[in-house]
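Bit of a strange request maybe. I'm writing a small parser for structure token strings and I need a real example to test against, not something I typed by hand. Could someone generate the tokens for this chain?
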Amino acid sequence: MTKPEPIGLTDLYASRRYFRKFETIISHLGRVAAVMEAEGDLNRDEVKILTRYIAEMTFTFRALSQKYLLVGRDTGRFFGSLSIDAHESGFPAADELLAMASDAQQAERHLAGMPTDDELKQQMVEVIVGDREVPTKLQFALSQRNYYEELQLGELFWPRNDPQIVWTGNINEQRRTFRVHWAMYDSQVNLPIIYMMEVEDTGKIALPKDQRRWPEVQAHLMAQSLGGLKLVTIAKGFDEDFDDLHPKRLRRFHLGPMYSSAFTKQTGPILRVLEAARAPEGQDWALVWTEEDLHSERVIEERQGWFSTVEREVFALDPFAGRGAETGTTRMERSIVLPQRPYQALEEMNPPGFGSVRKFVVSPAGRVLRY
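Reply from user aminoacidic:
Good idea to test on real output. This should exercise your parser:
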């Protein structure tokens, strides 16, 4: 079956509503992580990692909103429109982030050739007062300047967000512990995906300072960071490729899909729930948050050559109904974040499959509660 093509938001007001909606949704995700911390699902350091990536997503949407601020207006040249995956994820198409990453490499050159903010605003006043026209082309030029300035500030969520490492302690003099985290914008599903791995290091040089192993680890993890790969496949490959690095836990967080009756064409019960809720503008959405979790169950020793052995991890797979072999995880948990009105409709309709899904409900005041 052919994957549906992304659609372009060519209407100015629809485009702006889309960006406002995502700004609202992303602003709640940090609070969701805080609730998870309060309930013991995440620790403080893990929440800091997640909220950092969430903040980067905020900056990415802010940059894209400037790029497409005047979509649908006569700006003097065709500039296109934001492409979104309306059929699957509800998020921007991965090509948008690829183009943004390319633009970031040339942001300084573009800004050097543009008038300053003050110069553009002065020219706008002259057009409004002298010609009595709306200075659309100058507004467009200013929006593009703001776009490149956002890119130059950095701290955005890129198509590839390379691994970073945090020391978490020493078990003994020969065994250190680290948490490695990285993220991708998966082009197959058009979603941000965040990884965390807890690893024990028995190498002679601590992993972050090892000029040979650390670049190899980064390259290996980025090459294996595909949403279609099972966690157990990624963890086993890492375990076998690095004899002195021992992955004890690997997690993957999928932020999305986002459902909205105004923008997405997904099928399934959640879209029917949103239609039944008849929520006001800005409240007609739901975001799925999925966590996959894989633990090492025990360690075995494997012969290597004639005189030595290496440690290998045996990973615990979900024992219920064979799901572990199917999912490649020890545990998988789905959550859904949604405003009060859609939550009430969800409870009334009670569609199959939602009994085990955690619900994080956003009040009109922005407070997040778990049900």
